[in-house]
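tool_log.txt
---
The assistant was asked to compare two proteins side by side. It first ran the structure predictor on the initial sequence, then on the second. Raw inputs and outputs are pasted verbatim so the downstream comparison step can read them without reformatting.
(1)
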Amino acid sequence: MKSERTITVERRGGKLYEILPDGTTRPHKAAKSDWARLEAMTDEEIQAAARSDPDAQPLTEAQLKRMRRISPAKHLRWKLGLSQAEFAKRFRIPLGTLRDWEQHRSEPDQAARAYLKVIAADAGFVERALAS
């Protein structure tokens, strides 16, 4: 039995498309927001609206305890779309050190944190600087 739902997906380039029940796709039509109405809402109305959305419920204490923090090094590596080995080689970080950072066995020292910030700001610049 085919679903009667329309699904919205994001494709490369950040464009949204709808997958229709028959399997065809079409560009997603963005809904217009009534910003004046939203800005006029009180904090209590905002809380009530948020809690009425079944997909946006606050996390329970048990859910929060099960969540794990992603290390900034891992987040940066994912953002650049690199494997651990590629990231370590490209930016001349020992692979074992990178793994320790990502698995929270150790934390980058102040200099390493600064280096990661520079990579995040302009990875291409760092690559060119290391190549020369």
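(2)
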Amino acid sequence: MADITVTEANVEPSDSATIGSGTAGAAITKGQPVYLASSNKLLPCDNDFEASAKAVGIAVNNAADNQPIQYVSSGIMDVGATLGTGVCYVVSSTAGGIAPAADLATGDYTCILGLCKEQTDELDVNIFFVPKARL
């Protein structure tokens, strides 16, 4: 499998979604998962490092560096892509990407973004970071 292909024009939170906001620390595109960096700015997630894998939400608007950004932190949202019913979606190894959990590889940090329950364009956002086991 591969990252989902997001059509920005179709990214839309539901009326009941919880919306957070912040300042972009780089260019962010609608539909990208974002994390809060040590600079207190939001950046696109990737699962290569623990810090960048800890998503706070999925962007609902485009933003340039130092511009305001909003994101869905929980609830239903149209992610602008076709999803598989019953499939769990996670932060991808590609910056700003969303992938099915089956794409995770050894060494990736796991951050669950949500589950596609019924509508194949809607993700039930329920973010959960899975810490790696300590030896």
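---
observation on (2): The beta strands are 11-13, 18-23, 33-36, 42-44, 55-59, 68-79, 88-91, 98-100, 110-115, 122-130. The longest strand covers residues 68-79.
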